[in-house]
Design a protein that fits this description.
rod-shaped, Integrase, catalytic region
């Protein structure tokens, strides 16, 4: 393969499909979390326990990352 063949073979980028955007696992609980934080509860462990009781099935780390900028 000479240089021209090589350049022609790689001159077009492959077309990648867009990935579907996944809903955040916290999405159904965000309103509740904001309400509790506005009430003064800023302890992620306490909030995690509360949303687990409501059906949340993911890690505490996701909640901590969500709470950080608020």
């Amino acid at each position: 393969m000479n240089e021209l063949d090589h350049d022609a073979a790689f001159s077009t980028m492959p077309a990648y499909k867009n990935r579907a955007v996944k809903e955040c696992k916290l999405e159904p609980y965000k309103t509740y979390i904001h309400e509790r934080m506005n009430e003064g509860c800023v302890n992620a462990v306490v909030l995690h326990d509360e949303i687990v009781d409501k059906g949340y099935r993911s890690k505490l780390t996701i909640l901590i990352e969500f709470m950080r900028p608020h």
